[in-house]
Design goal:
Layout lengths: L19 H12 L3 H14 L4 H13 L3 H9 L9 H13 L3 H14 L4 H13 L3 H14 L4 H13 L3 H14 L4 H13 L3 H14 L4 H13 L3 H14 L4 H13 L3 H14 L5
Helix pairs in contact: 1-2, 2-3, 3-4, 3-5, 4-5, 5-6, 5-7, 6-7, 7-8, 7-9, 8-9, 9-10, 9-11, 10-11, 11-12, 12-13, 13-14, 14-15, 15-16
């Protein structure tokens, strides 16, 4: 099961314009997650101080959260002339351009962020992800590796690297990157899941199940881990174990129709045709394209 990655954006506060009190209030609202209030204050402050870059960034982040991507882009355009040496600005610009499906422009924005700030790790993750999305996996691998030269223990970059290497069949390199990730942080749920997927690609069922089980022990009620456990068992014809894992997944998320569909197929393979039909009908009724 794949999940869309969240874009990385850590906003800093170095800007000029407002009084220290005005700036501190905005920082507090933003940092404490009170984004609606931060957005309203940022609107007021950017009307008074057009060069207040942090205010425009807050507006951009709020509008992207509201899926108002064109307006979010315009917010950055209004402060671009004040941000020529700000890698964070270009990272946010890349995220916004991706949301507008302007992938080539997003790549250029991330590359500019790294030209200005070669130590700005967020841009390595985001540039690499964008490149993967447009099929430039080898360039993405190069980007992730460059990031790891700067931060050799960065679990996030290791996972991205391992995923990309696995996607082009470089299983040994993928395994090395992901094994390094779990050795650095044995509590990394994502690293165990990814290592399990690479073990599956090797057709090492026992090792894949070991990895997924480790992930499940980290997060006992995680549907992703249960789906991977069930899927691995199914692919290696252990239908009874697969059934158990899919049932556990549905106990956590009763309307998870992917789990329901997998359970229906598993039950059919176990010869439980009536139960299989019961779940199949629910899948068809709710999401016929997945049936």
């Amino acid at each position: 099961m794949s999940t869309k990655k969240k874009k990385v954006a850590h906003t800093q506060f170095q800007d000029t314009g407002p009084t220290p009190l005005e700036r501190d209030v905005l920082i507090e609202l933003f940092s404490s997650g009170r984004l609606d209030e931060a957005f309203k204050l940022a609107q007021q402050l950017t009307k008074k101080y057009s060069a207040f870059v942090f205010g425009w960034k807050v507006i951009n982040i709020y509008l992207r959260q509201e899926k108002q991507f064109e307006d979010a882009y315009e917010a950055l355009v209004k402060c671009q002339k004040f941000s020529s040496d700000d890698p964070e600005f270009f990272n946010l610009l890349g995220i916004t351009l991706e949301a507008l499906n302007r992938y080539e422009d997003a790549v250029k924005a991330y590359e500019e962020a790294l030209r200005i700030g070669p130590l700005f790790l967020d841009a390595y993750s985001n540039l690499g992800d964008c490149l993967v999305n447009i099929g430039q996996v080898h360039y993405a691998i190069e980007v992730f590796n460059k990031g790891l030269i700067i931060a050799s223990d960065n679990i996030d970059l290791m996972n991205r690297l391992g995923e990309s290497l696995r996607s082009i069949g470089e299983l040994d390199k993928s395994h090395k990157a992901l094994s390094s990730a779990v050795s650095i942080d044995e509590s990394s749920f994502k690293s165990w899941i990814n290592l399990g997927l690479t073990e599956e690609a090797y057709k090492n069922l026992d090792q894949a199940l070991f990895c997924y089980d480790k992930a499940l022990k980290i997060n006992h009620a995680n549907v992703i881990a249960l789906m991977h456990l069930g899927g691995a068992c199914f692919r290696f014809n252990n239908f009874a174990a697969a059934e158990s894992h899919f049932i556990d997944a549905l106990a956590i998320e009763p309307t998870n129709f992917a789990a329901m569909n997998n359970l229906a197929v598993t039950l059919y393979n176990l010869g439980s045709y009536k139960k299989s039909e019961h779940y199949s009908r629910q899948v068809v009724a709710n999401c016929p394209d997945d049936a």
